[in-house]
Design a protein that fits this description.
- The complex is a heterodimer of chains A (about 250) and B (about 300).
- With about 250 residues, chain A is α/β, with parallel strands linked by helices.
- Chain A has a single domain, classed as HUPs (Rossmann fold).
- Helices cover about 25% and strands about 30% of the residues of chain A.
- Chain A has helices at about 35-50, 70-80, 95-110, 125-135, 190-195, 235-245, and strands at about 1-5, 10, 35, 55-65, 80-85, 110-115, 140-150, 150-160, 160-170, 170-175, 200-205, 215-220, 230.
- Chain A has a nine-stranded mixed beta sheet, sandwiched between helices. In chain A, strands 2-3 form a two-stranded antiparallel ribbon.
- In chain A, α2 (about 70-80) links the parallel β4 (about 55-65) and β5.
- Chain B is of the alpha/beta class and about 300 residues long.
- In chain B, the strands form three sheets. In chain B, strands 5-9-4-1-2-3-10 form a seven-stranded parallel beta sheet, with helices on both faces.
- The chains are: A alpha/beta (about 250), B alpha/beta (about 300).
């Protein structure tokens, strides 16, 4: 089985983002960038499927600025076999990303695409579902467990009231939730080896996809800060405040 | 203008989250609702939906394919109905979040997830970067598909209307995914998204056994129980207890955070609560920066004392 894992370069999850003065975006100058954490989980799951003998080849793809090549090298160091960078000036919206990925799926013919359930920058939670729609493939979002079965996949998903298991025919789309696995760190020798693994670069503009945003950003702002309240000295004081001041009990 | 709201009606009832989605759509013109489900639940679900005030019409689609809220048949159905509507709306629940992006791609539309404010028919506010930034977007798509951050909209009433019900013939489709089984956390408590009071626990509870200390307090307050990501990852409670950026987004009247340090991703899920109480032994914990009332100390003494004091 061949697995495609799309990954995104995002502001590191430890960074407290700041809105730019012009309100058109967030400060990225000098900010640490990393692989989207859910995408690391997706890469890890592909590696585990290969270690179980289910997968034979793992291809990873990123769409974005030239520095996204660093993110792809991280995936290669974790163990992916080869990488494609679809270079574009800005980060396209999920619909455009899904259209680009569809072109790559048509070319590479993977049996399974595993994506992170959402990117922690735009929090859209859409690309996997949109790609599944464009390909007319079955989808299992928010996966916490993926098992190969005789005729496809059994995927356990995190849903509102607990979890549920779906059976999917292949080819299929799976999006990774937090508890699917704990991603490995790339060991130094593997980081060295990753430099020699194949990384192909394609210009997004050569793919014939319209990358124009459908959602114009009118403004970005930090939400009104919640101001800290008071410290109370005892349980009795807390109960008194909740009853008589906040009136919530 | 006309909006279609997809309801989560698979168990035969209409949850509060779906009624919040209807409330959000109220500014978008006439509202039809779409109720789907298996043959056993559809009649009850349709009858419940028809009682919601302000609905023009209840449209129903029933069959085994719709019994478990699978995204593929639901998205195909939304695409078939799309020509009648300017907006298609759903609560940002597991079903809404799975289905609307898929339908949007089929309609060549960029979905707009987690909408927390509707400025006008094409302008929407949504959180990014774990709720640390709010972005105002204007959609240039002819049709708009939205999921609604339900904590941002007070639900419409459950009773008082009498909308007509129209049964649809869903489009035929090849089923490439199939429901196998569900493991639902059984609880007598209110759902997190619908609770007026939430008692939530984190790392400070130390174990699954320790977490049980929250139950008498929650019983006393009629509260739902939530948890931080650490508490879920450590196996103290099941994953559907998680409040935060990647869990449930809640905004109860009262949120009591016990032994929760207040990581950014947790705050993203609860900082719109009306009143926040923090109980933590670390007086430097970031949770105190958003708490209205903080109490520093050992939660294993404070929580039972608080439970007793409320008696």
């Amino acid at each position: 089985m061949k697995i495609l894992v799309p990954i995104k370069r995002v502001v590191d999850y430890n960074v407290k983002v700041r809105v730019r003065r012009d309100g058109g975006g967030v400060e990225t100058a000098g900010v640490k960038m990393s692989m989207n954490p859910f995408d690391e989980i997706a890469v890890e799951e592909a590696l585990r499927l290969r270690e179980k003998g289910v997968a034979s080849e793992i291809l990873t793809v990123s769409i974005g600025v030239p520095q996204a090549a660093d993110t792809l090298r991280t995936a290669l160091a974790m163990g992916a076999d080869r990488a494609i960078l679809v270079q574009s000036e800005e980060s396209p919206e999920p619909l455009a990303v899904a259209k680009i990925l569809k072109i790559l799926v048509d070319r590479e013919k993977p049996d399974l695409v595993i994506l992170g359930k959402q990117a922690i920058d735009d929090d859209m939670n859409a690309t996997g579902q949109m790609l599944a729609g464009l390909l007319d493939w079955p989808q299992a979002t928010f996966a916490s467990r993926v098992e190969k079965t005789a005729d496809g996949l059994a995927v356990t998903r995190e849903v509102d009231g607990g979890s549920e298991t779906l059976a999917l025919a292949l080819p299929a789309i799976v999006t990774a939730d937090l508890r699917l696995n704990e991603p490995r760190y790339a060991a130094l020798p593997n980081i060295m080896k990753a430099r020699k693994k194949p990384l192909e670069t394609i210009a997004a503009t050569d793919l014939g996809i319209d990358l124009t945003r459908r959602l114009a950003i009118l403004s970005m702002a930090e939400p009104p800060a919640r101001k800290a309240g008071i410290k109370v000295g005892s349980v009795a004081e807390l109960v008194e405040k909740l009853r008589n001041e906040a009136k919530v009990i | 203008m006309t909006a279609l709201v997809l309801l989560d009606a698979e168990d035969g009832t209409i949850p509060q989250t779906s009624r919040s989605a209807i409330a959000a759509a109220a500014s978008l013109g006439d509202i039809d609702v779409l109720v789907t489900g298996g043959p056993d639940t559809i009649a009850a679900a349709a009858a419940s939906a028809a009682k919601i005030p302000g609905i023009r019409k209840v449209r129903t689609a029933s069959g085994e394919a719709f019994a478990h809220g699978l995204a593929e048949p639901l998205a195909a159905l939304l695409v078939a109905l799309a020509p009648d509507y300017d907006h298609i709306v759903a609560a940002a629940t597991a079903i809404g979040k799975s289905t609307l992006p898929r339908a949007a791609a089929l309609l060549d539309v960029q979905v707009i997830p987690d909408v927390m404010e509707i400025r006008d028919s094409q302008t929407f506010v949504r959180p990014v970067f774990a709720g640390n930034v709010l972005v105002t977007l204007r959609s240039s798509d002819a049709k708009k598909l939205l999921t609604i951050r339900t904590a941002s909209f007070d639900p419409v009433a459950a009773e008082g209307g009498a909308a007509p019900i129209e049964a649809l013939t869903p489009p035929d489709g090849q089923q490439k995914s199939r429901f196998v089984s569900a493991e639902h956390s059984s609880t007598e408590r209110p759902q997190l998204e619908a609770a007026r009071v939430i008692v939530s626990g984190g790392r400070g509870l130390q174990s699954a056994e320790g977490f049980k200390i929250l139950e008498p307090l929650a019983d006393r307050l009629g509260a739902a129980i939530g948890a931080s990501r650490v508490a879920v990852d450590s196996g103290f409670v099941p994953n559907d207890y998680q409040v935060g950026q990647t869990g449930k987004i809640v905004a109860p009247d009262l949120y009591i955070a016990c032994g929760i340090s207040g990581a950014i991703q947790h705050l993203a899920g609860m900082k719109d609560s009306k009143v926040i109480v923090a109980i933590n032994k670390d007086e430097e914990a970031p949770i105190f920066q958003v708490a209205d009332y903080g109490l520093v100390g050992d939660l294993f003494q404070i929580v039972p004392a608080l439970t007793a004091a409320l008696g």
